[in-house]
Amino acid sequence: MTHSEGFATRAIHAGQEFDPTTGAVIPPLYLTSTFVQAGMGQLRGGYEYSRGGNPTRTSLETQMAALDNAKHAITFSSGLAAEDGLLRAILRPGDHVVIGNDAYGGSYRLISRIFGPWGITHTVVDLGDTAAVAAAITENTKLLWVETPSNPLLAITDIAALAELAHAKDVRVLVDNTFATPVLQQPLALGADIVVYSTTKYIGGHSDVIGGAIVLNDDELAEAVRFQQFAVGAISAPLEAWLTTRGIKTLPLRMRQHGENAQAVAELLESRPEVERVYYPGLESHPGHELAKKQMSGFGGMVSFALRGGREAAIAFAESTELFQLAESLGGVESLMNYPALMTHASVAGTELAVPENVLRLSVGVEDVADLLADLERAFERTAARLA
Ligand SMILES: *Cc1c(COP(=O)(O)O)cnc(C)c1O
Questions:
Q1: 7-248 maps to which CATH number?
Q2: Catalytic one among 158, 176, 193, 375?
Q3: Residues where N6-(pyridoxal phosphate)lysine occurs (predicted)?
């Protein structure tokens, strides 16, 4: 593959060549920890030990690099392991990170509570406020951490504008592209230096794998991230890598349907009197709508909304749906309901990243949209009955 093919073609074929020894159309799953050597130091296929490399992982990394038209993809045991590997490759004691005020709670926890004690400082900013971002950058700043759309409030940040600003000060820009996926947003093409994914979410797409990836063009940094991974061992294991390659083949199809269903869900929520506010970039009422139209090729499958009834209503509603199952995570084919304040974002309660207590987050799946809408309408009735 040369990366000149269309996106769906790359998703299906990059790194997925048939097995030359048997003709199997799907590359085998290499469940092996080690590789027999032909002689001292003579590797048969370039592989030595699976912490350093495994053909199934290579297959996933080739496929993932192709999706972002990137030179390198390095896949890890989780999204946070990928972030950790990247941060260790870039940061040294005394360095500083600027991070958006509604970044994924786990990313913030990693930077503040794991890297903090090792001498890394950070500043939390509103990424929509360019002047605040510029002011937050110091001479020790090494990284600007952007998440767009953000989790869970779906804020949209101008990647190209921030990349220009950061690069003028020699600061690298990382984009957590987990929500948009490379189908809807190409951060490297917009000027970012590094893309991170929790492949647990849309990329894997079937809620059966935990994984992560760092995608980038910088050869030297890629080498440094690989070294961190090799030395520590937070690799994407073969079965997880193989399941992820399978998920990716339908990523463009799934993202299209997630987006269509999410738009319908967001419009239904916006029409309900019980709802104070809907957070979905596909709605014209969303402050980032125009920017999202420019920067993305669709709005994705995540919808958050605030209920007028506060915490009590949010919890009642979260327990009232059937198709939207109450569970952490997102991006699978099945719809999920999350209450950030007590679930995914409990770790940032009381910080600048805390999520309002009346907000619910939906991961809108690819079920029949009429069934999803009916489930939500029923939940409004049940919530009203329960609160009465
Ligand atoms: C889930 C998630 C992560 C962390 O990924 P894991 O695979 O759970 O470690 C990072 N960023 C975002 C936006 C996420 O949703």
A1: 3.40.640.10
A2: 176
A3: 201
